[in-house]
């Protein structure tokens, strides 16, 4: 999913639904070129497995703790949650937010 290439709510739902909410915490971040990533996150290391480096990171939208219902298939099927998350991504991208939001 890329925020500069006409992203869709369906793309975000696919991304959120592609991970297991009960297996890992996850971090949602966006690179400077607009790519949206959802990566496993480990609090003891303070970064995600695929976390972008400072040179490519535009912003971190959120960290979703394990088994809280923010990721996985059930979360992806929650229209209110997905609409809000999609809006937040687009708003932060439009503002070119830098760093943590």
| Tally of separate domains | 1
- Percent in strands: 25-35%
How far apart are the termini? 19 Å
Structural class: alpha+beta
Integer average pLDDT: 87
Q: Which sheet architecture does the biggest sheet show? A: 5 strands, mixed
Listing every helix as H and every strand as E from the N terminus to the C terminus, the arrangement reads HEEEEHHE
- Low-pLDDT runs of 5+ residues are none
Number of helices: 3
Gyration radius from CA atoms, angstroms: 13 Å
| Broad shape | globular
Lateral strand order in the biggest sheet? 3-2-1-4-5
Number of E-type strands: 5
Helical percentage: 25-40%
Task: Give an overview of the whole structure.
This protein is an alpha+beta fold. The chain has one domain. It is 30% helix and 26% strand. It is built from three helices and five strands. Strands 3-2-1-4-5 form a five-stranded mixed beta sheet, with helices on one face. It is globular and about 30 Å long. The two termini are 19 Å apart. The mean pLDDT is 87.
